[in-house]
Design brief:
Layout: H1 42-56, H2 59-67, H3 77-97
Length: 103
């Protein structure tokens, strides 16, 4: 590994620098998300969000993600949508800068 993509060094990998430290302005920590089909009722989305947030907040889940080098954070469904849209836009730009052709 050369560097991590979050803005701060990962607690699980303190010896690895960030891309920012290497002069590359990138901040995209590793993230996991759960998606539901379009049109899923908002109460169902809210219940799923509550269940998954509780599940990843357990000590066991935090330990699992820490082994992967990830810090756990949870978002509301609305925050998740904004986060996804921002990541989609950013990665599109980075892929273009790198001149990576879609496969």
């Amino acid at each position: 590994m050369l560097a991590i993509t979050s803005s701060e060094r990962a607690k699980a990998l303190p010896d690895y620098p960030t891309m920012k430290e290497g002069g590359v302005a990138i901040n995209t920590p590793g993230w996991w998300s759960v998606f539901a089909p379009a049109g899923t009722p908002k109460p169902v989305i809210a219940q799923l969000n509550k269940m998954f947030s509780e599940a990843v907040s357990t000590d066991e889940a935090r330990a699992f993600f820490k082994k992967l080098g990830n810090d756990v954070f949870t978002l509301s469904p609305e925050e998740s949508q904004k986060y996804y849209e921002r990541e989609y836009k950013n990665w599109g730009e980075w892929v273009g800068i790198a001149k990576i052709e879609p496969q």
